[in-house]
């Protein structure tokens, strides 16, 4: 019996010893009769891969799942059913850049989310609201439903006080407001889902939650979807090596540090044989393209913008090294970056700055540069490019860790256990595993 299924067995109601087929069958109805409403504000569904994986896992466990999310490019349809999951989308103002913009965005989202939640309740029903931050305001949507007996699960994706401090280099009144909203969200929730151990510690320390009410469900890659393909030599455009990056193009992602590292490799070390492909969109994409042009890196750096999985998988399959230049700050130190796990799933060696959760995820699959030092970052990239045997060894270590510990299928039993705990806290332990 696999470790995954042993974990599944532990997450399900106790009873007599069961065979592998019996455990698999029990998982298929572990949440039978449950009706779940997931609320996510920062990305459209199914583009938010973590939330979509959670929704599909809940569906596979027998739950009826509805999701509220914003619209987005390619996701404009307001109501749609995908793979048996109902998705209700709402518009948002253009991406916020200042205080007034954020207030408008959050107020608009809360109005839409509240209206759609009541609409879904009367049309389809739900017994559990599963809220995914940011922001830490969705408890306001959940609160009236808690008063009428619905469960509330808080899925803690981002630590917003740390994000504010990293972005604005200060604390102050708005930072204290963020801390208050986070605390209220923790206190309102029946159960907290944390994406890693650092976030679990925050839920316990700042949120005052007991250990038994906090479940770590990591954002592991789905190996049925994330599959290497044949390397595409055309991507290197005549260069010898390819370095890949996948992620958001924003201020906190350290792309400017990566460009400085590229500049050092090209202009100082004369490494004209390296091509960098940066996959992803975000608010800083155009300014980063301009910075690359100003640094004279057009021949060595390609920005694809937001790309389909087909291109993403080709880039990762073709890369010799993958990089994560996220700045070392309290936000990034405690956060698990999905890109790290995806690099490992593709068997690629990694270069990143030395952050707690990055090291916890990658271990020996990565080299770790000095904090926010682009020169050392460049040196680490070159170190790997000149040692193919080491690249192969590190890539194999990463792939093995994903296959044996970090893939999404290892997280599903923990997600189910979180729902079981929420039902117990709500006084309905007996009906958790009831068949529909």
TrEMBL record:
<dbReference type="InterPro" id="IPR028098">
    <property type="entry name" value="Glyco_trans_4-like_N"/>
</dbReference>
<feature type="domain" description="Glycosyltransferase subfamily 4-like N-terminal">
    <location>
        <begin position="49"/>
        <end position="225"/>
    </location>
</feature>
<dbReference type="Pfam" id="PF13692">
    <property type="entry name" value="Glyco_trans_1_4"/>
</dbReference>
<dbReference type="GO" id="GO:0016757">
    <property type="term" value="F:glycosyltransferase activity"/>
</dbReference>
<dbReference type="Pfam" id="PF13439">
    <property type="entry name" value="Glyco_transf_4"/>
</dbReference>
<protein>
    <submittedName>
        <fullName>Glycosyltransferase WbuB</fullName>
    </submittedName>
</protein>
<dbReference type="InterPro" id="IPR050194">
    <property type="entry name" value="Glycosyltransferase_grp1"/>
</dbReference>
<keyword id="KW-0808">Transferase</keyword>
């Amino acid at each position: 019996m696999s470790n995954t299924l042993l974990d599944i067995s532990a997450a399900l109601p106790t009873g007599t010893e069961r065979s592998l087929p019996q455990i698999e069958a029990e998982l298929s109805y572990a949440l039978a009769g449950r009706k779940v409403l997931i609320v996510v504000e920062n990305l459209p569904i199914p583009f938010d891969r973590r939330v979509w994986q959670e929704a599909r896992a809940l569906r596979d466990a027998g739950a009826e799942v509805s999701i509220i999310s914003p619209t987005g490019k390619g996701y404009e349809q307001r109501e749609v059913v995908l793979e048996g999951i109902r998705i209700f989308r709402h518009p948002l103002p253009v991406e916020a850049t200042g205080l007034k913009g954020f207030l408008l965005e959050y107020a608009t989202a809360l109005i839409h989310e509240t209206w759609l939640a009541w609409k879904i309740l009367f049309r389809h029903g739900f017994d559990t609201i599963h809220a995914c931050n940011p922001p830490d305001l969705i408890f306001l949507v959940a609160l009236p439903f808690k008063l009428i007996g619905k469960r509330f699960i808080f899925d803690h994706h981002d630590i917003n006080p740390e994000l504010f401090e990293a972005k604005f280099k200060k604390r102050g009144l708005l930072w204290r407001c963020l801390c208050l909203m986070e605390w209220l969200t923790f206190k309102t929730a029946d159960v907290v889902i944390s994406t890693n151990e650092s976030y679990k510690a925050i839920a316990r320390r700042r949120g005052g939650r007991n250990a038994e009410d906090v479940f770590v469900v990591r954002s592991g890659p789905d190996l049925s979807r994330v599959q290497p393909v044949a390397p595409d030599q055309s991507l290197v455009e005549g260069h010898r090596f390819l370095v890949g990056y996948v992620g958001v193009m924003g201020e906190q992602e350290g792309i400017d540090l990566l460009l400085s590292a590229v500049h050092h490799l090209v202009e100082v070390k004369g490494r004209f044989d390296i091509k960098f492909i940066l996959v992803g969109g975000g608010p800083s994409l155009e300014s980063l393209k301009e910075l690359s042009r100003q640094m004279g890196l057009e021949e060595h750096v390609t920005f694809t913008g937001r790309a389909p999985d087909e291109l993403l998988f080709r880039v990762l399959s073709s890369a010799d090294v993958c990089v994560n230049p996220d700045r070392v700050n309290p936000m990034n130190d405690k956060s698990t970056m999905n890109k790290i796990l995806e690099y490992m799933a593709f068997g690629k060696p990694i270069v990143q700055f030395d952050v707690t959760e990055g090291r916890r995820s990658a271990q020996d699959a990565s080299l770790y540069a000095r904090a926010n030092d682009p020169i050392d970052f460049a040196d680490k990239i070159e170190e790997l490019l000149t040692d193919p045997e080491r690249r192969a060894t590190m890539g194999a270590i990463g792939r093995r860790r994903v296959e044996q510990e970090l893939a999404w299928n290892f997280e599903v039993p923990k997600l189910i256990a979180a729902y079981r705990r929420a039902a117990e806290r709500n006084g309905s332990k007996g009906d958790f595993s009831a068949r529909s």
